[in-house]
Amino acid sequence: MDSIINSQPTNQDVMNSVQEVKTSLGEVLEVMNAFATKMEERTHRMERTMTTLATKDFVVEQNDKLRGDIIATMRKGDKKLGTLVDVLHEKKVIDDADVKRVVSMEPFPQLSV
Known about the structure:
Layout: H1 2-7, H2 11-52, H3 56-90, H4 96-103
Helix pairs in contact: 3-4
């Protein structure tokens, strides 16, 4: 029975062990807090970056607008070219074969002349 009593920790031993655990736990919590702070800073930086990046939908929309503007401009030029060809043909500067060749060219070919 004496050996059981001698092997039992004293209240002071228990208190010392509790203090060691508290100290270790405090150190772990400090490290975790520092890590969480760093992660929060990185998250904020990423959020700021994401708000400044154009979204895919925005880029596609702007690309479509630009494409429409380019096509409209090209159609105006094509119409002017058609008018010029007609004027030159009326004045007998170019013949029917030349008219057919010019109006059948890209980007907006006219199949029937």
